[in-house]
Amino acid sequence: MKVKEAKSVFDFAFFVGPPCQPQLAAAATDSGWMREPDSPSRSSHGAGAEAAVARYLSDQGFDVIATNLRIGRLELNVVARRADLIVVVEVRFRGAGSWTSGFGSILPEKRRRVRRAAEILWRRRYARDASVSRLRIDAAAVVLEGTAYRITYCPGAF
Questions:
Q1: CB atoms closer than 10 angstroms to residue 7
Q2: Which has more pLDDT, 36 or 95?
Q3: How many domains does the chain divide into?
């Protein structure tokens, strides 16, 4: 694992993880958060994608702290914790026929907003918490394939 050189107070704990590996989330239509592919609501797909990522993180040993956390006018999709690591995840849902991937849809302005929200979260909640030593911003691209969400997860995405 490589560590980037710190350029600001926030960057001190920015780790670059391994290359992205696709992870297929288990179908869970009976749990209520999964929608069929023909569901007309875009927001329901987004909520299902966020729930699938939260479940994926739980399966990886993280405790999900919050979803859709509002910080003023900013929002963080998923915030999770494992030991001394806080992870902020930007979740991007795209249909199978989309022109761009979920990762391709994270434009520079969106990265700035997520980073700004994560910095505020760090300052307000975790900067003085001795049990937390680092915060990492990850991204997850989610595609609905039949009745399952395919999650491509990138640690330290930006």
A1: 9
A2: 95
A3: 1
